[in-house]
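ok so for the tutorial part 2 we go from a plain amino acid sequence to predicted structure tokens. step 1 is just haveing the sequence, like this:
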Amino acid sequence: MRGLIKSVKTHEYANVKIIECKFNKRGKLIIELPEKILKEIEWIPSENQIVEIRLSKSRPKLEKWDIVMSGKIYYLEGKKVYLSFGGFQALYEAPRERELTVGQKMYIALKKIS
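step 2 — the prediction. this is what the tokens look like for a chain of 114 residues:
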């Protein structure tokens, strides 16, 4: 699904960006990404950029994406899914189309579009 970056913030104590994306008026993704990874793919995220986002149980093909991370669900609350990707946090909020459980392994893939 495609999302629009609404905000980009930087943690004061670490070289980590907090990126908030909105998509389809139905959901959002807030994710922490290390600046080191962003530099490696030569991407400076900014407001109003469009990104492709995929959250799935199966590993996506790496060559199609700029960033792919694996992690686990650590908390579920209504439409909110809280994930940890090696300590980097993400909040995915949207109507759920499938059953998810705490401790379940998930993959997130991101690709910069514009």
